[in-house]
Amino acid sequence: MLSPSFNNKDRIIETSSINETLFANNEKQPVLVHTEKPKKQYVLNGFGGFSSHLPTIQHSFNPEPAAYTKLREKRRLAIKKSFLHGWNGYKKYAFGHDELTPLSNGTNDPFGGWGATLVDSLSTLLVMDLESEFNAAMRLVHRINFKVNDDVSVFESIIRYLGGLLSAYDLSERKYRPLMVQAEKLAIALLPAFDTPSGLPAHYWNPAK
Questions:
Q1: CA nearest 96: which of 140, 153, 38?
Q2: CA neighbor of 155 nearest in space, from 202, 98, 99
Q3: What CA–CA distances, in Å, run from 173 to 123, 124, 167?
Q4: Nearest CA among 143, 164, 159 for reference residue 95
Q5: CA-based diameter of the chain, in Å?
């Protein structure tokens, strides 16, 4: 049995007619304004009254053998030493800049010159319990001015700076208010980059505009 013929052109005309009918009146839709403060919700507790079926991801480990504890501690110290080697080089030759150029001990600022490596490293400094290094970095975080008159990558600014500031704020148990203050300043500076016909952000944006 042969299938009935189907004309794509007819379908396009039908769809266009439906769209024209729907939007012919150009009626304004009511705007709903919510004044209540949103409640803090947790993924594992579900949202909007719907309970989550997601299992917890924490694994209950058995007691660790002494030999493995010794090996793990050795590995942990090796990783920390490796990080400090890179961090101390950055701090000595390029502190406050985006990047250290290791062969020449010079600097490079492709991400607005706000100290991408410094902000990117804040969460690592906290995880590794390097309090003095974190405090030294925070002294520069206070002074970052996001109103630079230059085109910056919106994507890089969000993942490196905004992500770095917010993750450090959370990992520090929200003790360092300046991290949130700076994150808010950056978000406000980048917000106009999202004001596009498509709603998708521009690739680059000049925060000084």
A1: 140
A2: 202
A3: 12, 14, 10
A4: 143
A5: 80
Nearest to 118 by CA among 147, 88, 98: 98
pTM over 0.85: no
What would the pLDDT profile of 79-129 be if each residue is shown by its tens digit? 999 999 999 999 999 999 999 999 999 999 999 999 999 999 999 999 999
d(CA 129, CA 50): 38
- How crowded is residue 87: how many other Cβ atoms within 10 Å of its Cβ? 21
For residue 166, give the nearest of 113, 112, 111, 122 by alpha carbon: 122
Gyration radius (Cα) of the chain, Å: 26
Give the integer Cα–Cα distance in Å for 85 and 135: 18
Q: What is the pLDDT of residue 48?
A: 57
Q: Which residues contact 34 (CB under 8 A, 6 or more apart)?
A: none
Distance CA 60, CA 73 (A): 20
Structure tokens at 31: 């705007």
- Residue 158 neighbours by CB under 8 Å, 6+ apart: 190
CB under 8 Å to 150, separation ≥6 — which residues? 112, 113, 206, 208
pLDDT band at 59 (very low <50, low <70, confident <90, very high): confident
Cα–Cα distance, 137 to 87 (Å, whole number): 11
CA 25 remoteness from chain centre: 42
Confidence check: pLDDT of 77 > 60: yes
